[in-house]
Each structure stands twice: as structure tokens, then as C-alpha cells.
Amino acid sequence: MPKERPRSLTPLPRRHLPVLHSQPQKKTMMNEEDNGESSTRRIQVRFVTSLPEPFKVPSSAIAIPVDLTRFGLSSLVNALLQSKDEDHKSEPFDFLIDGEFVRMSLEDFLLAKGISAERILEIEYIRSVAPRKEEDPSLPDDGVSAVDGSSSRFILTGCYDGFGRVWEGAGLCTHILEGHSDGVTSVSVINPEGVETVTLATASKDRTLRLWKINTEEATNHPARVRAYKILRGHKSSVQSVAAQTNGEMICSGSWDCTINLWQINDTNAENDLVSKKRKVDGRVEDSQLEGEAFTTLVGHTQCVSSVIWPQRESIYSASWDHSIRKWDVEKGKNVTDIFCGKALNCLDIGGESSALIAVGGSDPVVRIWDPRKPGTSAPVFQFASHTSWVTTVKWHDKSLFHLLSASYDGKVMLWDLRTAWPLSTIESHSDKVLCADWWKSDSVISGGADSKLCISSQIPLQ
Fold first, then answer.
1. Radius of gyration (Cα) for the chain, nearest Å?
2. Rounded distance, CA 279 to CA 320, Å?
3. How confident is the model over 136-149, as pLDDT tens digits?
4. Name one Pfam family in it (predicted).
5. Best CA proximity match to 343, nearest among 326, 358, 363
6. For residues 212 and 235, what is the distance between their CA atoms, to the nearest angstrom?
């Protein structure tokens, strides 16, 4: 495989730009060895870190070859740690100079940034953001099209076979959600860290959404089969995305019918919209099943609404195949912000600094990020282009200002940091298109694909 490299990267916002120390131009920026016995140039550096013991090296300055790359720097830091503790096990590190990742030799980095080698250079090291462990994949019966890792207790998935599934961990399915008549396209955990009984939502190509309740503390020797307690009807075409309001009182959904519907979760607030349904199974009548109707429809998109999120109580964001990202005022039911991308969009997430950055992916290999706090500009502030096919998922880490993941039809999940244009890590657990991905328990990435695998990549250190 040819080595991947990004095609473009919009410059970092000024607050992330390195502080450069201008020096008069010299014939060479690097100091030659004084004894003349070696042509290897060296530079004085001091390694610093915010990592706890036992990951701290001595703070004194040392001279190192200027042609070292991050791999050589990582070997050096591991050697320094082993000199303190012979039981230290080597592991990969990443390095930052003035807040920017080093992704070339030190010499090339200093020349590119105009940083003088006359001073003692301070290099910060962190643990490399990459999975330390790959769990054995779970094997549902069909392609895994949707995943939600917002609960630390379980993973929720949706599949082409029309079933939702709840997984306690790798290979352990505890609940099967049955009732949809076509593939499940999107799933959402409505109260991820709530009480024992958890409410779930699923969206499907069968034009409905369904609400479920499960008891996560129930001990079962085999997957418990669960029927939805409420069916939500109203979309005229496949439902592509579902998202819950932060307080868990409502959900919203985006559809191929170009609309966004809002639905009540709490039955007592929507009594007029409920219809009791009974069905016969093996000659007996089962308990009633509720049906609900949308109480608000947001209209404005002209093509499929592929992704919706509800990050603040008063605002919904949507992405569409009509090339637009829209922000909606929930109370007024109106579109208040438009961002046009130029590509059909598949996925959307809000996060990063102040939970304000908008990341999207679509019908090209590029992950684009906008900062809506910057008025008067329609250009993304970052663009990452190491994928080779459509991007299906973008997801911010909920505890980091810098980190996000992306998944693609190229079969890869990539981990990104806003401080570098290159992916920090590439996860290649799938043999076919990756259709969905999410963070789980803050240190794991879960992903589902057309290869009918649910994969878990764990022990990812994030500072």
C-alpha cells in the first residue's frame, strides 16, 4: 500500500499556532560536533511531560542527533525510562514542539517552522494514541449499520437484518430487539447512565422508529428477546438517523423524506398522540403496544436528512445529501444557520473546544470541521484527507478538545488530533466497508461493518 498523506489541512486557529522564535538567518541552523570526529549534528533538548510517574524522565537538557524522527525520539525516551526502572516496558510515544505534533525529522520540523536551534528545545511527550488491544469481534447475523457506545455498561447496535442488539462486551449479546420489518439504520441510548431500566431508540428503513426498555441488571443465560413498547410512525420514507435530547425527554429523526420529526418520549406528555394496539400471537392477545405521532416537523432540506444530533436542549443540527449543515431552533421550529459543503453529507457531530466545532463526512474522503463562532467565513477550519473513500462516521471524544474518529467505506477507522494533519492511528479490523463507529468507555473504539463484525479496539490512552 502506498503511504497515505493528507491532501490538505486548513491552518490551525491562532490559539493553536506554535510560538516561533525568530533568529537572524545563518548559514546553518544546527551545531556541528566540536571534535570533528562525527558529521552528525546535535541539538540540546529537554523532555517534558504531563504524564504521571513512572513516565517522567530526568528534566536536565541532553544533546541528541537532529535527524531523529518520532520513532527515534520514542526509543530514546524509553531508554531514559528504562535507566530509571529496568522493568519499564517500551511503548510508543508522540511528541509536540510548541503545541504541534512532530511528524518529520527534528531538523525538517525546525526548518519548516523557523525555530532556532540555538536555544534548548523543549519537547513534550505523550503516550501514542493507538489501541493496545483488539478484542475478538462479535459476529451478528448481518451487516452492522449502527452503533452507540454512550453507555459504559453496554453497546447498542443495529443491523441490516432488522434487529437491534445489546452487547455487554465482546461476543456477549444480552438482548435482541425485534419488530422492525427492514434494516435498522440508526440507534440511540436515551438515558445511557441512568437507572437499571434503560430506554433505547431505533430507526429503520421500514419508515418507523421504535422505543424499547431493557433492564441491564437482569441475569440471562441467552439473549432476551424484547418487543418495543412504542412505535413512532409519520415519516414517508426510510428513517436514516435518530438522536435524543440531552435531558432524554424527546428524540428527533431525519429521513429520506427530507424532514426532521420531533417525538415525545414521556407518554404522559403525549396522551393525545397514542393509540393502543393489540396483536394475537399463537391464539392469545399480547399486551398493548403504543403508537405515537410526531408533534413537530422541521422542513427545509431538499434531499435526504442523513444525520441529526441534539447537543443542546434548544438546538438540533442536521446534515443532508443537499450538501448543507443546518442548525434548528427547537422552540421556534426554524432553521437559524446554514453551512454549505459542496458534497452530499453522511454524518455529523459536534464537539471539540467549547463543544462548538462541527465535524462532517460525506461523499468524498475528506473530514471537514467548521467553527461556527467565526462569523463571515464559510470555509472549514480543518480538513483531513487520509481516507480513500466515502466517510460514514465522525465522532468527537467526549472528554478531549482535540480528538475525534472517522470511519469510511475504505474499511478503516482513523483517530485524529487537531494538532496534526496525519491520523494518529489507523484501525484496520474490518474486511469490508465500515458503516458506523463510536467511542466506548473513553478508551475504546467500537465499529461495525458490512462484513457483519462488531469490533472493539481498546486501551487507547488519551491525555
1. 25
2. 37
3. 888 888 899 999 99
4. WD40
5. 363
6. 19
* Cα separation values, 434 from 196, 261, 387, 414, Å: 31, 27, 12, 11
Co-location of 86 and 223 in the same domain: no
Q: Which residues of the chain have pLDDT under 70?
A: 1-39, 194, 219-220, 267-288, 377, 463
pTM of the model: 0.84
H or E element that contains 111: helix 106-113
Question: If DSSP codes are grouped into helix, strand and coil, which group holds residue 77?
Answer: helix
Contact by Cβ (8 Å): 228, 212? yes
Structure confidence by residue, pLDDT tens digits, 244-303: 998 889 999 999 999 999 999 875 544 444 444 544 444 443 446 789 999 999 999 999
Strand boundaries in 216-258, DSSP class E: 224-227, 230-233, 239-244, 250-255
Query: Residue 345 pairs with which residues in a beta bridge?
Result: 362
Helix/strand/coil (H/E/C) assignment for every residue in 343-366: CCEEEEEEECHHHCEEEEEECEEE
Task: Look up cell 468524498; give the residue.
Answer: 364
Between CA 395 and CA 147 the distance in angstroms is 12
Query: Which residue has cell 475525534?
Result: 404
Q: Is 94 helix (H, G, I), strand (E, B) or coil?
A: strand
Contact between 127 and 89 under an 8 Å Cβ cutoff? The reply is no
Q: What is the CATH number of the domain that holds 63?
A: 3.10.20.90
Of 379, 367, 413, the C-alpha closest to 144 is: 413
Ordered DSSP codes for 278-333? --EETTEEPPPEEEEE-SEEEE--SS-EEEEEEEETTEEEEEETTSEEEEEETTTT
Cα–Cα distance measured from residue 392 to residue 380, given in angstroms and rounded to the nearest whole number: 18
Cell 461476543 belongs to which residue? 171
Domain count, the chain: 2
Tell me how far apart the alpha carbons of residues 102 and 120 are, in angstroms, rounded to a whole number.
Answer: 17
Provide the domain limits for residue 438. Answer: 133-265+288-458
Element of type H or E holding 263? strand 259-264
Residues pairing with 299 in the sheet: 259
User: Could you give the angle at the alpha carbon of 236 between the alpha carbons of 230 and 238, nearest 5°?
Assistant: 75
